[in-house]
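Same chain as my last thread, 228 residues:
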Amino acid sequence: MMDIHDAMLTVQSLQETPTGTLRINAFATAAREVMEPLILSFMQRYPQVHIDLVTEGRIVDIVAAGFDLGLRPADLVPTDMIAVPLGTKRSNAVVASPDFVRTHGSPTVPADLYRFRCIRARLPNNALLRWKFEKDGNAVQIDVQGSLTLDESSLVRIAAQNGVGLGYVMEADVRDDIAAGRLVRVLEDWTPSLAPLALYYSGRKNPPAAFSAFIQAARDFANSQKAR
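reply #2:
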């Protein structure tokens, strides 16, 4: 016999108008990539749904932490979760201001970076980020040097724009800056594609209408990425 909780879930899953709260845990870089095309567009379509988006640099157990969904690169999704690949094209990018490149030149291979002022990045575990590169099967990691260390990529972007040095960020975070000429990309042939993003969740029976609607929106977004 169905208990009251199951009955309530069934009613919620059958609602025509999605309501309630969806809690999503994501890397900040991942959240920025899908904020406008997926999350904000979903909220415009379903204004009665509340999105509670939490960004952090570590991977959490979304079920134990009370989240409905996680958003991570596909290769970091736990194997016991159901994944919805989003098909996003992603890569790292090394960037600098046009003035910096005019004054100091550009590195042509990763080893050149030892001769350049770089903006160092600190990871959530307090370790310094090693800049990773790959070309023709050759993988290289560089411990860069510089007078500024930051722990948020949006700050690296600002520092790079102001000529502090070369920065290593997600390409999606600086795409508009590169297009507008505020930043110059270097070593592009050494920064190949990364794993695409994936939305993931644990299996659940009678999911609320808001949850089902968001999963469908994610699948639609993925299809739009394939068409690009």
